[in-house]
Amino acid sequence: MDGPRHSLEDPDYAAFAWGRFRRILWWMSGVALLAAIVAEATLYWSMGELYLVTAIATFFGVFLTVMLAAALMGLMFLSSGSGHDAEVEDLLKDEVEID
């Protein structure tokens, strides 16, 4: 396998890749918002009325957790798709394992 044809060093491909990453994050912000609303509704249904601080902390906790996961996964896909993973040099590939 020759590796990816594109790299983030190419300005046109970098603009495309980062645009795709931002588009994914926008979609995931909607998913995170929906997850936070469902979490709030579930807590309200199971526990009744919540204190304002509890509701705010739950909302932001769920929202930010989903967004953090989305950002990290998006960066992983960006790195893999742009060839950065293939460019990593294994400095220990010539080392002989001694038992």
From TrEMBL:
Keywords: Membrane, Transmembrane, Transmembrane helix. The chain crosses the membrane at residues 24-45, 51-78. It comes from the Bacteria. This is Uncharacterized protein. It comes from Sphingomonas hengshuiensis. The lineage of its organism: Bacteria, Pseudomonadati, Pseudomonadota, Alphaproteobacteria, Sphingomonadales.
